[in-house]
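Folds abound. Consider this:
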Amino acid sequence: MTSASGRGSGVPSILPLIFFLIFTVPVSLLPEKGGDNSRIHSGKLLQMFKSGGYTYLEYESDGEKFWAASKTVVANIGNTIEFRNPLAMKDFYSKSLKRKFDLIYFAGMVRAVGKSGGLSPDPSNGMMGGKYTGTEKKAVEVLTGSIKKADGGMTIEECYSKKDELDGKVVLIRAKVVRFSPNIRGTNWVHIRDGSGGPGSNDITFTTMKTLIPGDMVLLKGKLLVNKDIGSGYKFPVFMEDPEIVKERE
């Protein structure tokens, strides 16, 4: 496998979205485990350089050289590094870096083996188990049956199970904010849960210009969009754009 070499300045505008996707897109939308997206990657760190707040790393594993990029790196050249569940991008060309990567892994965090520093939790826990919520200090737990469905509204599970008939229709959802990612592609991205559903059907993403805090109870009214394509090969099975939002007390 070949790898690109050389240095440059600037960061591709797609990188903020990539790092958002790593921790927010349901696991079923990411490449399957194994192969280019094997669960834990490790190897000897050969070189690294920073550009626009990100660190690019070249490392060697089983006699092959690879590239990775991360916002947070706790390692030095010569260390054996590890990172978890990256997003693999093949034939990735960065205009700002003026280089093409045959393959590059975008990781939430990279650290030296044996070093502390908060290796990012398994994204499957973040999306499916409610234990990883990004930058907020405390995880937001939403227990089954803990949130009452809005009068005339839908549960998140119902939005998934009836998505084909609800596509393009206005729905009402009461839920709790479990993740808030500001200023990505000019808007804020929010994940909500109401305690219904299971892996792959318990979380809805929506965009808004409003600022919310993980733990906020909200009542949403907006159009439900099915298989929303946001580019770069990613689709949300259920999505909402700029719904009406009313904050409620628990």
